[in-house]
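User: Can you write out an input/output pair for a complex, sequences first and structure second?

Assistant: Here is one pair. Inputs:
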Amino acid sequence: MKEPQSSPPKAAGDSPLRSLLARREMIVLLLLLLIAVTLQVASNGLFLQSRNLSVMADRKAPEALVTIGITFLLIANQFDLSVASVMAFSGATTAWMLVNGFPMVVSILGGLAAGVLIGCLNGFLVTRLQIPSFITTLGTMYIARSGAQVITHGRPIGGLPEDFIALGKIQVFGLPWYFILLVVCVLVLTFLLKKQKSLYKIFFVGNNAKAASMVGIRNMRITWNLFMVSAFIAAIAGIILTSKSYSASPIAFERMEMRYIAACVIGGASISGGQGSIIGSILGFLLIVLIGNGMTLIGISPYWENVIFGSILAIAAIADAYSTGRRRE
Amino acid sequence: METDGVLSIRNVSKRFGGTQALDDVSFDVQKGEIHALLGENGAGKSTLIKIISGVVQKDRGSVFLDGRELKVRNAQQSRELGINVVYQELSLIPDLSVAENIFASSVNMNSMKFMRIGNLGSDVMSIVEMLDIDLRTPVRNLGIGAQQMVEIAGAISRKCRILILDEPTASLTNEEVKILYRIIRMLKDQGVIIIFISHKLSEVFDIADRATVMKDGRYVATDRVGNLDENSLIKLMTGRDLHDMYPPKGDSPGAFALEVGDYSGSGFRSVNFSLREGEILGMAGLTGAGRTEFCTTLFGVQPSTGGSLRLFGKDFAPRDVLAAMRAGIGYLPEDRKQTGVFMQMDIKENTVAATIDGIARHGILSAAKINECAREMIGKLSAKTGLLRDRILSLSGGNQQKIVLGRWLLANPRILIVDEPTRGIDVGAKFEIYQILRNLARSGMAIILISSELPEIIGMSDRILTFYKGKVSMEIDCHDPFLEEKIGCGIMGSSFRKSGEAEA
């Protein structure tokens, strides 16, 4: 046998500051600060007014939740295009049940079940029938959207009961409860993602599903569960937003799924799987929101929004390809 | 000195982070020479080739061709200079035809031309003829060996001064190897410089004119192959003698670990045998004879269709891989790249992959614990690694394999199946893996060894099963006087008559 190595391999990184700066989350955060300062100056101080910020947080927090589920799936090397349709579908289901006299709790559970059903279908098609998730969720995206239209007969369902409307207005510590939920989810999941054993296994599944199955990681089950989780989160967001907007519209959140996925990619989730973080995706989402908000504030035509958004996405994709390529070398 | 057509490597050095990959390497390769480049993994062969082909830039030193210094900035440029490398991993496009693939590799990016099959050079045509394949066949439909040939044909369809073959025979059949030799000799006669990397030393003696040995990033020696033999080469490469390659056999196997009764599944049927603790059971056979299929079924990857298993005296039917692992079985897969390593993940993550549940406390993993496990295992295996958080693909094949093996040692199974454990890894790492396996057996683990290399099966096994067309054709003790003959018969499905006993 060979002599054992003279210097044992080290686990510690080089400078912690450097590795922190090299992270995608940090880059996005710096970009966010830069945009915030620019907007603050350009909008004559309108941007950082607490009213503007709280309106943004209030409106976007439920949607930000959705990126969490998508991040899990991207890490597992799967796509979920159906989330935005699931949001509309679940919202419509709950609204329909409410106006048809079901108790509030039952209606909410009904909406959640409708969403999870779609997630379950996604999981079944992807894991059991081995249909690529891109196609599967493209299909269920249309199915759920159509479901929402059938339920609502193509018109928004309004006239929702008072206590359901009140649900969207509950505040905790002076903040909307779902904003607190978002913060707690982000903090807890950011910590747990690489620590909790089941969540940690997602990285192995996304990196090499075959190899994962050969070390006893049940990648089918994990993938299936993640589709359900993603749909469940989308259903929660859809129901909250239904409550907040006093109605359920069949065309709500149309085409938003691409925004959510883009947010995750900007935040460092890899479209080839095995990489991503919750905090990164949330920051990516915040970046998209800020750009939209800021352009309105400083009076740039909203038609330009997608140019900037698209450019940032392209840069993120290039960064991903570059780092993946270098790693493969 | 004659410099025309000579490739000279002078004082080339290269450092990757903390590793000195190449240290002041100098040697010459002559025109029209088949030059074997030998060394263990991590000896620096790959780095040297990458420098010659411009994929990696050297820190110091120079490379001369025809007496002029080569300054290659990237792979494209080196191809224009006539330097072609055929790597182990093929770069063919599976759905395109043979002709399209050959052209794809030779067509210059800047000039879009329509392809005409008639345009293929005569060299390429002679390869295609030797292979007896239709140019219109999609590459997907070819065997792996034929694909390799197509890759070589693509390489020489370009201007070709230097052809570098990185383990070209790793996946070829004997017949295909012969064709490859003919192609190489044809190129040699045309004055092409051929650099040939292989871990199979017998091939070096078959084909090479001269051989250069490297070790730990340094140049060791260059000599005519006629002046060398296998033992001296291994000694140059590893500093060890050949005859103590295999550790001594085990002596007293323990209790039954596994009893297999009429076990059937996809790819094998009616398999009967038993395995004892402390024993290494070799499984010999051709590819597709059912060995891997049997073992993956035992490991719960696919369901069995009949028969029984008794594991440590208790009936056992694996529901899935996790169930098999919990019952004490480990499996080192045959294809390291596809089903072994997590390429984009780091060394420590790869090490603990099979024991995540075991390391976690109340479902939570601690970084310190992961590091501790990984470091302990790497120390035990004497794997050469950089930082634990370096990606596993920064390691050589041999060290990657040690990490994957280490993963199973951490899981501490009672039965370990190793499927082609030394495929594509160098002599030194092979030797170490043999030692590790024997030590595990000595400590009471039951080991099933699948290997296509007969010397390995014979050198390592206490008992040997041969598989033929999905069935166990023979069971042979390692002390059998007609061991090799019997294995040969068993693999081919014929009966052994010399000693009068006949098994089907």
